[in-house]
Amino acid sequence: MRVTIDSDNCIGSGQCALTASSVFTQDDDGFGMVRPGREDGAGDPLVREAVRACPVQAIAIEED
């Protein structure tokens, strides 16, 4: 699996970082980003919940 955030779509609500903090964080401007080295979802079962929690559907999961 590969996790990405569309930075053009992200509004910085922080739901991803609150839901799956081992995979997501926020940059200096408050926008969501995938933690370096965690693009594979790091086996965190909450990644899919973070996708559902994003109010603008800026997070995508690509299955291998």
Please provide a written account of the structure.
Strands 1-4 form a two-stranded antiparallel ribbon. A two-stranded antiparallel sheet has the order 2-3. The chain starts with a strand and ends with a strand. The model has no long low-confidence stretch (mean pLDDT 95). Helices cover 19% and strands 22% of the residues. It has 64 residues and is of the alpha+beta class. The protein contains two helices and four strands. It has one domain (2-62): Alpha-Beta Plaits (2-Layer Sandwich), CATH 3.30.70. The longest helix is centred in the last third of the chain and has 7 residues, at 47-53.
Percent in helix: 10-25%
Strand arrangement across the biggest beta sheet = 1-4
Low-confidence stretches: none
Q: Using DSSP, what is the number of strands?
A: 4
Give the oligomeric state: single chain
Structural class, from secondary structure content?
Answer: alpha+beta
**Strand percent estimate:** 15-25%
Query: How many helices?
Result: 2
Mass-distribution shape: globular
| Topology as a string of helices (H) and strands (E) | EHEEHE
The main β sheet shows up as: 2 strands, antiparallel
CATH topology: Alpha-Beta Plaits
Rg (CA only): 10 Å
Between the first and last Cα atoms, what is the distance in angstroms? 5 Å
CATH class: Alpha Beta
What is the CATH-assigned architecture? 2-Layer Sandwich
Protein name: Ferredoxin
Pfam family, one: Fer4_15
GO molecular function: 3 iron, 4 sulfur cluster binding; electron transfer activity; iron ion binding
InterPro entries: 3Fe4S_ferredoxin, Fe-S_cluster_ET
